[in-house]
Design a protein that fits this description.
This protein is of the alpha/beta class and about 280 residues long. It is about 40% helix and about 20% strand. It has eleven helices and twelve strands.
């Protein structure tokens, strides 16, 4: 017999995970609605992740997944959403009766934020930095938001870039693995690597390359107090740029609604994130 605690335990799981503002955001939302739940950040290993995910969800909780477990999370699901099936990555898990269900709320969040940044400028060519689960969500978001757009992926590992392009072909998302020097222009650049989490990290693209590519918009999925180095450099050049706080709130609100079945208090969640980044 499965025994569930009264208080629902929710968590974001990753490695690293201490930087995550998901606990501040979700606990503010939980308090605002008077729900009996608590949200934690849990660091774990690749080996322990599957058992942790099943145990937490089996006890009636819910899970967000961050680097580097999004692809592993997709493989655990009994009931993947269409976004998970297309991307092969999952960032949100919950129990659906006795089944383990999951969604990739990053896809819609990235599409919404990137569309707002790009504005009326059509995205004909997008450059994605990174090849992990977040990068897959970005590629699907671009393919859905701007049908026919060319998507180039850059990785320091040529084998990973080739694997990413092969995944894209299977998923119906046209992706080409390239070196940064091979790209002549881009309408949208998205950083889906962890570069920028540490204060001393250089931007994943330098100012000279940004000027050469002349994108209309730059989205950095990393977020940090004062913005990331990539966002600062892009804005100094005059490029519309945003860090990952908007994506964090949008995907978090979608996750919240999967877990609780009620509208997320988005204003409260956004304020909690902004307060934490000012602190």
């Amino acid at each position: 017999m499965r025994i569930r605690a009264t208080t629902r335990l929710l968590a974001v799981v990753g490695d690293p995970v201490g930087h995550s503002l998901s606990p501040a955001m979700h606990n503010a939302a939980i308090a605002a609605l008077g729900l009996d739940a608590a949200y934690l950040a849990l660091r774990t290993s690749r080996e322990a992740f599957p058992e942790l995910a099943r145990a937490l969800v089996g006890a009636g909780g819910g899970l967000n997944v961050t680097i580097p477990f999004k692809r592993a999370a997709a493989g655990l699901l009994d009931r993947p959403s269409e976004s998970v099936r297309r991307s092969g990555a999952c960032n949100t898990l919950w129990a659906d009766d006795t089944a383990l269900a999951g969604d990739n709320t990053d896809v819609s969040a990235v599409r919404t934020v990137a569309s707002g940044l790009a504005g009326p400028h059509p995205v004909r060519r997008a450059l994605v930095l990174g090849t992990g689960g977040s990068a897959r969500a970005v590629a699907v978001a671009v393919a859905d938001g701007w049908p026919g757009a060319e998507i180039a992926v850059v990785s320091r590992d040529g084998g990973r870039a080739a694997d990413f392009a092969a995944w894209g072909k299977e998923a119906g998302v046209g992706v080409t693995g390239v070196g940064i020097g091979e790209v002549s222009s881009a309408d949208l650049i998205v950083n889906a690597t962890p570069l920028g989490l540490d204060q001393g990290d250089p931007p994943p693209i330098d100012a000279a390359t940004l000027r050469r590519l002349a994108p209309a918009a730059v989205l950095d999925l990393v977020y940090a107090r004062g913005g990331t180095a990539l966002v600062r450099v892009a804005r100094e050049i005059g490029i519309a740029a945003a860090d990952g706080r908007g994506v964090l709130v949008a995907q978090g609100a979608a996750s919240f609604e999967r877990w609780f079945g009620v509208p997320a208090p988005v204003t409260v969640m956004r304020a909690a994130v902004e307060d934490a980044l000012r602190g």
